[in-house]
Amino acid sequence: PDMVVVVPRFLEKIYEKIIAEVSRPPRIRKIAFEWATSVGREYSLHIRKKEPIQRSLKFKHFIADKLLFSKIRKGLGGKIKFIVTGGAPFSEELAKFFHSVGVNIMEGYGLTETTAAITVNKLDDFHLGTVGKPLAGAEIKIAEDGEILMKGGMVFKEYFKRPIDTKMAFTEDGWFRSGDIGEFSRDGFLRVTDRKKDLIITAGGKNVAPQAIEFLIEESVFVSHVMVVGDRRKYLSAILSLNLNEVERYAKQVGVQYASAAELTKHPEIKRLVSSIIEEKNRKLSHFETIKKFAILDHDFTIETGELTPTMKVKRRMVEEKYKDLLESLYS
User: Residue 68 contacts by C-beta under 8 Å, 6 or more apart in sequence?
Assistant: First the structure.
């Protein structure tokens, strides 16, 4: 394909596969990967800032492209020009990685009520880590509480035979309430930071956007899904599922014996692995955003079991209800 439209989870899986491949012996693979991606990131930064690129960097990028980047693009069919993603939040770090290997990720944003996309990044006008600028005919502003408000011909008129819901969905002067929290960058690109109803307010009165923390932890190849909790609590906790393929590979490397996935996820060595991941990520967070306790599930979140939406977003209320006792144990 020349282009595809996917949910972010598709791209996360590709990244996990790449990391898994380069982590295998011999070690020269990982060394070459780290060198190539550092060159790619530097090259990508110059492009995004529209700065001239020195000959030495061009030469190193040529080698990195032959060595690694072209193989990744070939794995996507070989002709891919760009990928559009939406439907769920996407990690800025992943967007930077893909751009560094020559794959442009154009993130967009919208709701059913806005007839799908209302903002999108463009090949000639993009800012990684944002969902782009408003499309023609769309008006967007940020309310005092941070909620994204919208107007325009693409915004729906009403919910069918639901007048009360319709009234609550709009401000008195006609702006549609998206239910999302966001902000504009200095150059006019919209950044969505969280769902308004998902914001956590700790017992200490701190506002926490859980999705940003979840993204950070999910960057690990060993972690599949994370849900952060802690509303009206003294500290934050997390419930998470593991990428069993990678965890099993790790278990084999360190000599962990197990008879089932449930036994593996409860093994002290795997708990130590997850604890080290969370400790590493905590160092990048403010004190009130750090994860103090966590629970590991012996299975992944899925659409079929009700924890995920079709676009692979975690159904927070469903998970909270389904694992109520487990979550309560993190605060007992």
Answer: 32, 33, 36, 37, 101
